[in-house]
Amino acid sequence: MKGFGDVRIRTKLAVGFGAMIVFMVVIGSLGYWGITRISGNIRDIFGTRLPSIDYLVEADRDLQQLLVAERTLLFTDTKDERFQELLKDYDENLEQSATRFGKFKALAATPEEKAIIGNYEKLRPEWEKASMSVIELRKQDTPKATAEAIAASLGPVSEKFEAVRDTLNQLQELNLDIANKENDEAQATLKRSLSIVLGVLVLGFLAGVLISAMLSRNIAGIVKTLVAEMQGLSEAALAGRLAERGNTDKVNFEFRGIVSGVNDTLDAVIGPLNVAAEYVERISKGDIPEKITAVYNGDFNTIKNNLNELIQAMNEVTDTAEKIAQGDMTVKVRQRSDEDRLMISMQNMVVKLSQVIQEVKNSADNVAAGSE
Q1: DSSP-derived secondary structure letter, 248
Q2: Alpha-carbon gap, residue 95 to 51, rounded angstroms
Q3: Segments forming the whole domain that contains residue 153
């Protein structure tokens, strides 16, 4: 099973950022959920409950104005213009109350509302019939009919009217209660959402700190180890310990290529230098090696060529010296440059030796001639 140190840095970073993204998604989801719930509560309050209460209040007001018109008609002369106006007000308020209740009914959705609406729709026709009978009695404009109208208006018709109004009051109280519950639910959702979001934020912050600390510590350790190995190689090179190499096992597997690359670079540099040092040492001891046949590039090839030229020159010097030692004074000494003191001296030596040999030969010839 791989440990944390065996995981690539990009994977560690991806996991860290992924965890942060998860926390952000969770926070966003919780916020969206809370806002959606609160939006639903607000939409129900302002889109349903308040308009419902408004329609019910207006319908109740219309019924109150209708009752005022009905009672006023009882004590208004039928021949008075005001009587006709009151009849008109009565009809208008009757129609308006029905229209506004119809608008409320279109918004009603709960079983409780529908139950009360059923009761209202049962009671209203009974009341309307009774109320209109009062108006019809008053239109007869007789003392008896007027007395009966007053008695009915103040008696059974009033009871039916109050029963209808009571259903409206029940519906108002129900919608107000639902609106309060929606408001309480919205407040509770807000508090709950804030608590959860704050909790997740705290957890996210702590997780972020922990992940950052782990990543920072891990990456710092990796960099520190890499720097230590590279610094060790640098110090070894400055101290002349060119055989030392970096330990790749101490470095994180992702950065071992750096140490391996430096080791390979040192091998590539020090290999030719070791060959050059060996050849120079052998030449200095008179052991002339064979020419270097290994393939090198760049400046190392220049060193190889120079060493091969040196080997060739030493071989030529050796061959010349051997021929001289064998008495061959006809040897040609090739001067390699104006600064080639060795070949110049050797050439002078050949000339001097040739002169000495010639002088000895001349002396010997003279001695031989004198003895005859």
Answers
A1: G
A2: 19
A3: 4-217
